[in-house]
C-alpha cells in the first residue's frame, strides 16, 4: 500500500513538474514569437498589397494588382512577371530589422547612413484598406552584408540585411513579364510553322496524345517530339525589349518574317510569334507577337530546333518500336 502511495505521489509530482516545464517553454516560445513580430517592418502580409511604387532617384516604377495578375502601370502599361513581383513582396514584407541603431533621426545621422538625398532607393506599399507604408534605404555597411533604412513617419533608423534592399532594387525588365508566347501546349488544337522560303508544316491535335501532320502531307506526328517543340516555344523568354512602338518593321526583318509560328488554342483562338533578323551585337533574334506592336529579342539559338521538314516531327518505325518496348 505504501509503495502504491509513493508511486502515485511521484507520478503526480512528475506530471506537475512536466506541466510546469511545458507552461514555461510555451511562455518562452510565445515571447519569442512576440519579439519576432515586433521586429517586422510592416504590419501586413504580402498578399494584402494592392499596389506599390519603387523610386530610384528620378526613376519611378509603379505596379498595381488586378485580380490575380500584376501590371506595370508606369513607365509603361504591360503585364508584370507574377513570380518576380511575389518574390519581391514576400522578401520585403516578411523582412525583419537586425537592430534599431537610433531611436530618433537627425540630418547628421541620416547623412551618415546614406539615407538623405534625392538619389535614395525607396518603395511604397499600399493595401486595399488604404494603409500606406514607405521604406527608404540608405548605404550598406563596410562589410556590405548589412544596410540602413528608415520607415516614413517612424523616427527610428534601422539596420537590416542588405538582401532586402537588393530585392527592391529592380528594373522594369526585372519586373516585366518576359513570356515570348503564352499558351498551353497540351491544350492547343494545333500549330503551323511557316518559313520565309515557303516551307511550312501544319499539325493538328484531334485528341489527347494524338498529333497529326496535315501539311505538306498527311502523316502521324511523334507526340514526344511535338510536345518538346511546343514547350521549347512556350518556355522561351524575352532577352531584351527593343522597341515599344516601331515605326518600321523592315529594319528588324519583321515586315517579312523569317519564321512565323501560329498556335491554335483550346478555344480556337490563334496566337502568332514572328521571328525576324539576327541582332549580331546583342546575339539574339528580333521578334514580335502577331497581336502586339512591341519588338523584343529572343536568344539566337531559338530557331535551332524549329523544324523545316515534316521528317523532324514524323513518327518513324524506330519510334514505334521504342514505344512498344516501353
Provide a descriptive summary of the structure in words.
The N and C termini lie far apart (74 Å). The chain has a nine-stranded antiparallel sheet. A nine-stranded antiparallel sheet has the order 13-12-11-10-15-16-17-18-14, with no helix packed on it. It has helices at 2-38, 82-93, 107-112, 162-168, 172-175, 223-234, 317-325, and strands at residues 49-56, 59-66, 69-74, 78-79, 99-102, 121-127, 132-140, 146-151, 157-161, 190-195, 200-207, 210-215, 219-220, 240-243, 259-264, 270-279, 284-289, 295-299. Mean pLDDT is 87; it is low at 27-36. With 326 residues, it is of the alpha+beta class. 27% of the residues lie in helices and 33% in strands. The protein contains seven helices and 18 strands. It is extended, with a radius of gyration of 30 Å. α2 packs antiparallel against α4. A hairpin with a 3-residue loop joins β3 (69-74) and β4 (78-79).
- Helix-strand topology string: HEEEEHEHEEEEHHEEEEHEEEEEH
* Major sheet summary line: 9 strands, antiparallel
Q: Which outline best applies?
A: extended
Low-confidence stretches: 27-36
Secondary structure tally, helices: 7
- Fraction in beta strands: 25-35%
Termini separation: 74 Å
CATH class of the largest domain: Alpha Beta
What would CATH call the architecture of the largest domain? 2-Layer Sandwich
Task: Tell me, rounded to a whole number, the average pLDDT.
Answer: 87
**How many beta-strand runs?**
18
Q: What's the number of domains? A: 2
Considering DSSP H and I runs of 4 or more, what fraction of the residues is helical? Answer: 25-40%
Amino acid at each position: 500500500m505504501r509503495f502504491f502511495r509513493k508511486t502515485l505521489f511521484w507520478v503526480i509530482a512528475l506530471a506537475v513538474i512536466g506541466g510546469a516545464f511545458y507552461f514555461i517553454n510555451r511562455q518562452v516560445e510565445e515571447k519569442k514569437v512576440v519579439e519576432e513580430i515586433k521586429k517586422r517592418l510592416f504590419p501586413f502580409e504580402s498578399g494584402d498589397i494592392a499596389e506599390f511604387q519603387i523610386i530610384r532617384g528620378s526613376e519611378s516604377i509603379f505596379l498595381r494588382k488586378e485580380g490575380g495578375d500584376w501590371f506595370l502601370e508606369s513607365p509603361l502599361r504591360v503585364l508584370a512577371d507574377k513570380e518576380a513581383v511575389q518574390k519581391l513582396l514576400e522578401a520585403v514584407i516578411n523582412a525583419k530589422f537586425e537592430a534599431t541603431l537610433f531611436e530618433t533621426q537627425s540630418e547628421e545621422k541620416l547623412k551618415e547612413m546614406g539615407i538623405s538625398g534625392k538619389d535614395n532607393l525607396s518603395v511604397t506599399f499600399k493595401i486595399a484598406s488604404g494603409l500606406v507604408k514607405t521604406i527608404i534605404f540608405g548605404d550598406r555597411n563596410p562589410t556590405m552584408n548589412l544596410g540602413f533604412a528608415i520607415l516614413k513617419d517612424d523616427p527610428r533608423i534601422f539596420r537590416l540585411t542588405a538582401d532586402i534592399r537588393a530585392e527592391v532594387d529592380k528594373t522594369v525588365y526585372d519586373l516585366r513579364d518576359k513570356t515570348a508566347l503564352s499558351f498551353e501546349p497540351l491544350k492547343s488544337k494545333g500549330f503551323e510553322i511557316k518559313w520565309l522560303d515557303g516551307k511550312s508544316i501544319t499539325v493538328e491535335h484531334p485528341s489527347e496524345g494524338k498529333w497529326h501532320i496535315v501539311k505538306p502531307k498527311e502523316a502521324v506526328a511523334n507526340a514526344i517530339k511535338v510536345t518538346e517543340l511546343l514547350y521549347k516555344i512556350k518556355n522561351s523568354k524575352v532577352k531584351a525589349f527593343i522597341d515599344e512602338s516601331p515605326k518600321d518593321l523592315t529594319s528588324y526583318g519583321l515586315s517579312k518574317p523569317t519564321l512565323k509560328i501560329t498556335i491554335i488554342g483550346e478555344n480556337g483562338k490563334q496566337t502568332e510569334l514572328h521571328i525576324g533578323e539576327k541582332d549580331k551585337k546583342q546575339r539574339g533574334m528580333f521578334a514580335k507577337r502577331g497581336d502586339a506592336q512591341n519588338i523584343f529579342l529572343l536568344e539566337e539559338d531559338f530557331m535551332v530546333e524549329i523544324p523545316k521538314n515534316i521528317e523532324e516531327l514524323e513518327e518513324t518505325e524506330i519510334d514505334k518500336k521504342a514505344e512498344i518496348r516501353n
